[in-house]
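INFO batch 0412 | record 1 of 1 | parsing
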Amino acid sequence: MFPALMGRWPAYARFERGLANDHLRLDSVIDGLDVALRLWCEAPGSELARGRALDLANHLHDLMAVHLDLEDADVLPMIATVFIAEEYADLEARLSEDLDLRQALFTVPWFMITVDPGTAARTLAGAPAALKVVFRLTWRRNRSLAERAFA
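INFO prediction complete | emitting tokens
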């Protein structure tokens, strides 16, 4: 999506580097959180493991909130201006093909349980089919884990 946007809307260049850096930071935090959650599962009574997992989960939430706010406010309007519906559908289909399943299995349910119900419903309604499948396969388990973690 973003390389195609860069090719059509040069003003996107002022956001590209920051968003790319955000994506790298998000990947790093997600990987760290995955490790922290596994350690916590191995030692459920460990306050150190719990604290590390919760710290990383909160950090991920904060990073995502800022990142998505920027994308929503500045980048999505560019996309809506530049691409017609058929072009967007083609880009979305290619995005689904390139989906990193390991990351999606974590990110999709995590995002959906951390946003308000209205945002979750709108996100799910507009999500590509692959992400809807990931959500439907993972939401119960992840909601249960979140309830245990944050209870």
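INFO post-check: DSSP finds seven helices and no strands in the chain.
INFO record closed
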